[in-house]
Amino acid sequence: MPAGPAAGHRKPTAAEVAAAGGRTIADVVGPGLRVLFAGINPSLYSAATGHHFARPGNRFWPALHRSGFTPGLLHPSQQSILPTLGLGITNVVARATARADELSPAELITGGEILAALVARHQPRYLAVLGVTAYRTAFGRRTAVIGPQDDTIGGVPVWVLPNPSGLNAHFQLADLAREFAALREASTQVTRPDQR
């Protein structure tokens, strides 16, 4: 798997990034997903490119590779490969902002309802929410911690992962990869009746 940008990819200009507020990015989904990753919401950089976790410094793609989910380090512009690996990406809130803390609690709760419907429709083996604070707010799970959860969303088991943003100083890349790897291992052991 090549680790460079997909053909035709170009870096957005500062003006394009600044103009991306409020835009959305298409979900990366497909049938039979092992894990559907849900970011909090797209960054302006991601919205400008149309690719999830595209902002330089975001550690999603390196953590995905180091944890063994992907055989090579993917560039965000290669996100369309993910469903062939049993992986997908969406967001709790679709609207792009400069920072996740610009989202209101009401917006996160509404986003959680939309996400639950998406999960119920696609039925991945796991829903992985990347950000414990957003998960607590969106789903009313005030005491949730990183790791597997005791309940389900849309009938699907939930695993909360740390936010991979470079702004999250509590988790270094090695820590993120370890958390992602625990989910990868669990996702290979669980087979739901409709995915045999």
Fill in the keyword field for this structure.
five-stranded mixed sheet; 5 strands; 14% strand; 196 residues
Structure in words:
With 196 residues, this protein is an alpha/beta fold. The protein has helices at residues 14-18, 44-49, 60-66, 105-122, 132-139, 173-189, and strands spanning 35-39, 87-91, 126-130, 147-153, 156-161. It has a 5-stranded mixed sheet with strand order 2-1-3-5-4. The two termini are 27 Å apart.
Order of helices and strands: HEHHEHEHEEH
Residue ranges: pLDDT <50 for 5 or more in a row?
none
The quaternary state of the protein chains shown equals single chain
**Can you give the mean pLDDT?**
92
Instruction: Return Rg in Å.
Output: 16 Å
- Reading side by side through the largest sheet, how are the strands ordered? 2-1-3-5-4
List the total number of helices: 6
Helix vs. strand class:
alpha/beta
- Per DSSP E runs of 2 or more residues, the count of β-strands stands at 5
What is the molecular shape?
globular
End-to-end Cα distance: 27 Å
Proportion of residues in helical segments = 25-40%
Strand content: 5-15%
Task: Characterize the largest beta sheet: strand count, sense, and whether it forms a barrel.
Answer: 5 strands, mixed
Produce a short descriptive summary:
The chain has 196 residues and is of the alpha/beta class. The protein has six helices and five strands; from the N terminus they run αβααβαβαββα.
Topology:
Layout: H1 14-18, E1 35-39, H2 44-49, H3 60-66, E2 87-91, H4 105-122, E3 126-130, H5 132-139, E4 147-153, E5 156-161, H6 173-189
Parallel strand pairs: 1-2, 1-3, 3-5
Antiparallel strand pairs: 4-5
Helix pairs in contact: 3-6, 4-5
